[in-house]
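User: Fold this; tokens only.

Assistant: Input:
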Amino acid sequence: MSESSPDFPPTSIAAFLRCCAGEWMGLRSRFAPSDGPEAGEGDEWHTSERGELLVAFLEPADAGSVGGLSVGPKGEPPRRLLFSADGELQAGDQRGRWELWPDGSLELVLSQGEGELRERIWFNKPNLRLRSTLEQRADGSLGRASFSSEIRRVSRPAA
């Protein structure tokens, strides 16, 4: 996908999901607030890790679907995310909703017991994707958070 592509930035959920397909190299920073007396005294509240993520577009299964994604770290079984046209989201046995915002970002919200997990994905460029994730506990407090920057692996043109 080139930067001058008329499909960038994606303006529909189907185009957004197709734009996600690829092999991504990423750096993820995770944050876990400490509720104990040691809060703020050290670097234990965050970690950073590199990784590779494989994302495949799944064609719509029926008229009520807009498609889906098969997502997983390289070398591990992928997780399937299925998107319905009415904004519903299915991720394994979890249910949630999705919304494509006017700013071009995709927000996913999954229920986790009494809490929820919110993820926002957006493209800065066709081959640069950013993600933020927030977990909200049942009592409304922050459980964990992460921020990822991901670069699409592209092959060099043949000489």
